[in-house]
Amino acid sequence: MKFNIFLINLDRSTERLQRASDQIEKTGFTFERVPAVDGATLTDEKIAEVFDAETAKRRFQYDLTAGEIGCYLSHIKCWEKIIDDNLDYAVILEDDLLLDRQFASVISTIPQLKSDWHYLKLSCPFKPRPYKATETVMGDDNLDVSLVNYKKSPTGTVAQVVSREGAKRLLAKKPPFFRPIDIDLQWSWEVGITIQGLVPYVADVSDEPSEIQRIAKRKELKQRPFNKLKETVRFKLKR
């Protein structure tokens, strides 16, 4: 199967690129750097084109920051490259990652999966999310790797695998968007794909300051708490 590893990295984040490169190279894999969309440089016109402000007012607790918009657009670039490069799938990484030593073993099991899949989480860096294994394959060093389903997928997009079919479906729906990418993906029935995971997880987020938060801190934005409550109820009913 034809695949590639994409590393999302801002042009100005040279130190992050070096740290991420060192980690990936130790796994024995090569990668392609994908220049991230810098939210700090987005024009008002571009933001209006891709960010659905009206839906955000009705359904999300704040208007996205420019950094969050840039992050979403960076992942869209990767999805487009999957199609343009005629890949079966791509491993998409962000440059603030911490890779586990089992990364290569877990990645090597992907062609063994018998189930059709769209989007595989390789990390759960924040709130733990329960899962149920649906298929188990064996990686290097007799490592058991499980394909898992979630009731609610983990947040964070530091490491994931996206199939060609998954990329097609995501691009058919986005942009515009009104939520951060990781929250949007939790609403999988709205974005048109199934979100699953590969366990054991093989990536985490470093303790470096977030580039997204450097541009604007979401906690400092005007909040719409009623939207959060309403959407929590909506999610539970739809799920």
Description of the structure:
This protein is an alpha/beta fold and 239 residues long. It has one domain: Spore Coat Polysaccharide Biosynthesis Protein SpsA, Chain A. 38% of the residues lie in helices and 21% in strands. It is built from 10 helices and 10 strands. It has helices at 14-26, 44-50, 53-59, 66-84, 103-108, 164-173, 181-186, 188-191, 211-215, 225-238; strands spanning 3-9, 32-35, 89-94, 97-99, 119-121, 131-138, 144-150, 159-163, 195-199, 203-205. Strands 2-1-3-8-5-9-7-6 form an 8-stranded mixed beta sheet, with helices on both faces. Helix 4 (66-84) packs across helix 6. The protein is globular, with a radius of gyration of 17 Å.
